């Protein structure tokens, strides 16, 4: 027999369920949040808010020529292309695969800028577009839930990290062919080919380590272990001397000597570090702090935080234009991209103290 208490609970729940309106979808909920009050950009802030795009990308990428920003809208199943000079929407790519909607995650241009690669989370593939015409050229298979993409400096190799599992897909661009899946530590996220083209690094989001592989043979030749929780996104200086790595759970930006493979400094910025991008002259780094609602600006000569830019809650993707004069910050939960004009110290030799 059903107890009286359970029966009473069931009847109350039934009345509540009938009375309540149907719940909105996650996409509709994000669209409603677009009307929330903007973060408080103080008049004294060095970074000036230029405009806002009402789109919901997870990640951003700058074209090699610096004229376009490609924004991957994961839950909208599209990539929106922004004109960095006119500050307008230039085009929209509807992401599909075999008649089904695709979920774009990372957007990465090839070193020569001729192609743009997009990892499709739910379709186990990367889609390759002509960067100039925005036309889909081909698709290549990957492992389960591809995310991170990087290319060797000569453009020959592409490596895609597969979030669901312990593999990274190796693609030979000369043959336009998937060569094999490389065994890596569980839940790989960030991937980086070193500037000299001799190594590729893969960060494990849950094992808190970096696996290092030789290029051409793609055999494991080293590792860096004992990192703060959830290493996520790499950036490397132009001279190849230092590699920076954000840690989502650890909240510490890691400064790694590329030659010795040793962590030489840990810098706390904010909670939930996600994307890092370097200024064109490598004098400053920007770090998106997902939970702290800020972007930290770091002077790399002494690794001092010189500014905290207020942003939306859960800021995640970020790019600078090639001249360093505009900064784009995205938050797909709040359904907007904020574009800032950067101050002179970012793209000249002056720097605040």
Structure description:
The chain has helices spanning 4-19, 26-33, 344-347; strands spanning 48-53, 59-62, 68-73, 78-83, 88-94, 96-97, 100-101, 104-109, 115-120, 125-130, 136-141, 146-151, 157-162, 167-172, 177-183, 188-193, 199-204, 209-214, 220-224, 231-236, 242-247, 252-257, 262-268, 273-278, 284-289, 294-299, 304-310, 317-320, 326-331, 336-341. The chain has a single domain, classed as Methylamine Dehydrogenase, Chain H (7 Propeller), CATH 2.130.10. The protein has 353 residues and is mainly beta. The protein has 3 helices and 30 strands.
Give a short summary of the structure:
With 353 residues, the chain is mainly β.
Relevant terms:
353 residues; Methylamine Dehydrogenase, Chain H; 3 helices; 48% strand; globular
Mass-distribution shape = globular
- Indicate the CATH topology: Methylamine Dehydrogenase, Chain H
Helix content: under 10%
In spatial order, strands of the major sheet run 1-30-29-28
Question: How many beta-strand segments?
Answer: 30
CATH architecture: 7 Propeller
> Can you tell me the residue ranges where pLDDT is under 50 for at least 5 consecutive residues?
14-24
Output the CATH class name: Mainly Beta
Instruction: Count up the domains.
Output: 1
Strand content: over 45%
Number of helices: 3
**Average pLDDT rating:** 89
Helix and strand content put the structural class at mainly beta
**Rounded radius of gyration (Å):** 21 Å
Q: Span between N and C termini? A: 75 Å
- CATH superfamily placement: YVTN repeat-like/Quinoprotein amine dehydrogenase
Biggest sheet layout: 4 strands, antiparallel
